[in-house]
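CATEGORY: protein folding

GOAL: derive structure tokens
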Amino acid sequence: MRAAKGKTNRVPRAKKYYSGKKKKHTFKNQFIVMPTGKELVDVAVGKPGATSDITLWRERARELSDNQKFQGDKAYVGEPAIDTPHKKTRNKGITVEQKQDNQKKARKRVVVEHLIRLVKTFRIAAERFRLKSTTYEPVILAVCGLIRWRIGALVLSS
């Protein structure tokens, strides 16, 4: 089957950023944070909204050490380098020990959630971005710099 004259078989640029989960066009960000929550180690910014978290991780993991262990949420289940919470199976729930283990992991992960909250207070990642999509990355990285300064990870000398 041939395409009509002047038509291409490419996916429209806007469709690439459409997130079926959120039902709108989105950018996806991913943060890697030190366990103390006092330093942003890595930020993946402005990826298409339809990209899954684990796919984003696999792209970034090539640049990180192989023997390093990470903590993640349920989006990263199946990745050997990431310690994830237990998911209940389709037919049965999780055991009491697994629930307690999930609570311990959640206590460690809460620092990441707090940093994500700080990014969202700037309303760049939480609401519609009305500028050109090419300016999203510099803006979000500037916000991350302000957050690093706010939490004391970045010290400016006078």
Observations:
- The first strand starts at residue 18 and ends at 19.
- The chain has four helices and six strands.
